[in-house]
Amino acid sequence: MNRRREGVETGADPLTVDGLAARAGVTVRTVRFYATRGLLPPPALGPRRVGQYGRAHLARLALIEELRHQGMTLAAIERYVHRLPPDLSADDLAIHRAVVAAWAPDALETVDRAELSRRAGRDLGDPDLARLAAMGVITADGTAAFRVEPALLRLGVELLDVPLSPEAIVAARTVLIEHSRAAARELSGLLRAEVAERDSDAVRSLSAHMQPIVVQALLTAFQRSLKEELRAWQQGERDTDPRG
Predict the structure, then answer these.
(1) pLDDT tens digits for the chain (244 residues)?
(2) Which secondary structure element, helix H or strand E, spans residue 112, and what is its range?
């Protein structure tokens, strides 16, 4: 296993075990318990042999917690995690978590600002709240509380450090929603045509089995398309760079 990749990724500030636990919204005891079960890789060793954790540790913790929230037993979580390739990046792990979260019903919780900051693992200022609201992660309920979608909160907090304006976030969210709705509509039409002659039980069974498969397929297709677009963009930047 590449400890550099799992421990402190390039360009990321290392986290102590306390910082990792705070960012993940769990206790230090939980982090250490998962480590003893082999669910988390060892940290990289920093100055004075202090353990340093990185984005991949945080993403793996988020996946484990998502599996736990779905009601999976510890044994089932261990089987799931141990089947994953050992060198998955934080982004790859985030895709796995997104697929797992897609199986769950929509759920909104109402929390106050202190609880929201606790779950985020960091103090949230007014600009942070504005950016999370622009992403659709939180909604003010008219009082001092916020409605939050737990499955999106960790992703939203990670995006707080991405240098995008609230306007760009809203525009990106609009693009994603419009295109995902269009894809869902067309896929739904295909499924309706396929099951038109079947009974209702068969329809429900097919829907339950297809949802995680379709979500995984959409995520994989989008990830590949985005990589191709970014690669073409970077190549274009290099081609127009006068320094060669």
Answers:
(1) 343 444 444 445 788 999 898 888 888 999 999 999 999 988 988 888 888 898 889 989 988 988 887 778 888 889 888 888 877 888 778 777 776 766 555 567 888 888 888 888 788 888 888 888 888 888 887 677 888 877 678 778 877 887 777 788 778 778 877 887 787 788 777 777 776 666 666 666 666 566 666 766 776 777 678 778 878 877 776 666 666 5
(2) strand 109-112
Question: Distance between CA atoms of 132 and 155, rounded to whole angstroms?
Answer: 10
The architecture (CATH level 2) of 3-89 comes to Orthogonal Bundle (1.10)
Q: What's the rounded Cα separation, in Å, for the pair 215 and 211?
A: 6
What is the distance between the alpha carbons of residues 138 and 150, in angstroms, rounded to a whole number?
9
Domain ranges of the chain: 3-89, 109-159, 172-240
